[in-house]
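Minutes, methods subgroup
Present: GH (chair), OT, SY

1. OT presented the first of two proteins processed in the latest run. Sequence and structure tokens recorded below as shown on screen.
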Amino acid sequence: MGAETQVFGSLGLLLVVLAGLGFLLFLIPIPLWIAAWASNAYVGLMTLIGMRLRRVPPGTIVNARISSAKAGLDISINDLEAHFLAGGDVERVVNAMISADKANIPMPFKRAAAIDLAGRDVLEAVQMSVLPKVIETPRITAVAMDGIQLIAVSRVTVRANIDRLVGGAGEETVIARVGEGMVSTIGSSPTHKAVLENPDNISKHILSKGLDAGTAFEILSIDIADVDVGQNIGAKLQIDQANADKQIAQAKAEERRAMAVALEQEMRARVVEAEAEVPKAMAEAFRQGNMGIMDYYRMKNVQADTAMRDSIAGDEEDQSSGPKS
């Protein structure tokens, strides 16, 4: 029993020693310390331990420090660690600074960190400043002064402006401004043929406005890729206006016709009203002795004769206007 107890005790002590050694190696990343020392990017052991305690991965910080030192850049451990704690991408920032240094583009760490924390891809921005990017606008529709619609597409070559990346407008603003310039240039052209003959005038007019002001890019060139002829908007508008005028004239004519019909009905009503007064007048004349019975009969004969003549005249008009054999 004594021997077994000693064996178990030795094993327990060994496990405790191994656990303590593993925790010590985790707390003090000796391989990283050696790699940083061998790369002339020395990082103290206490600094590495402090990173562990601050929950900062030492591998990320030390590798970024080694990369910058090998590229000839002096970036302190505190700056790298502070950028990581602020939520930035340390490796991407260091790679962007190395790329900028190789391209002779001034890129201090504070500017690179600010660009990264602003939500922009700082490495892509540096690459775009070295290799310009081509942005194609959507199909822009505009109408020349002669009423012909033109549909144009342009390709905008831009280069990232490092100094304006923080706070500068993005690609959407550049596309919107170029589209606005295309619409205004085509709209001020006297004819659509002038635009088709010299589409480069659109590029020159847009470039002269300085549309890249306030953006994160610098416009290098604007090339008109395609110009198509659309509808005759001027003729269509004239047709629509003519139809509208026609409807207005018809409405006014209908209004005048309705007024004439109403006036005619009113006059007929007055005639009927006047005719209704005739029997009263005749009765009054009989009572006062101003009219005799023979006068009444003569008036009736005249009315009958007039009605007969009207009837005969109507029959003759019907026969003369009938179909000819």
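2. SY then presented the second protein from the same run.
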Amino acid sequence: MVDGMTGVFISFEGVDGVGKTTQVKHLRAHVRSLGRTAVVTREPGGTVLGRSIRRLLLHGVADDAGRADAASHDAPRTEATADIAPRAEALLFAADRAQHVAEVIRPALERGDVVITDRYLDSSLAYQAGGRELTAGEIRDLSMWATGGLLPDRTYLLDMDPARSHARLTHAADRMESAGNGFQERTRRAFLDLAAAEPGRFRVIDAARPVNEVWADVRADFDALVADAARTAAPRAAEREARP
């Protein structure tokens, strides 16, 4: 739990197609069965501003001027797009995250809700630092500044060979999904390195197994996390009540 907050912050991470959306739905239903409020969100795109940023990040920037110029020269009209420079991409992700935390995550945690997000800071580190070969320290510092240092209480890394996980995708590939096998492998390795560096926060779960087995692992760990938080919170509450 984050100091000054009574809620629980959970993130799901992993390469595309590992089943994060399914596990988020299972956890939301479980949280509600415990009588608590579950706030489900995602990155990028967890706010109105974030949805605009998400379109840029995942589908590219439409070059309207280029299309107009081509049309004026009787050239075939095509959907021209402009590349997003790596540093600009990092800033866009950070802007989305700053708004996400300010508008959705912190208010929910302060209400005592359970916040479940599909991707957070670690996706920026894995996809941008690992997959796009930017400096991990700079990306982390940028995101920590944008969020005021907010990290999840638990991060579930659903791990799977990207070649297998991408075979599950049923929609057209976006910019990240279509970046190539080498990019996806580097991203997976970056996620695993992040988990190894923070074993207290991460739980790595083999997502190649059946969905119910993956969910059983998530549920058992989540229940233990909540129980431990309750044991820790009880003495603190008693201490506050005993103060004059």
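Chair's summary of item 2: Confidence is low (pLDDT under 50) at residues 66-80.
Next meeting: continue with the remaining queue.
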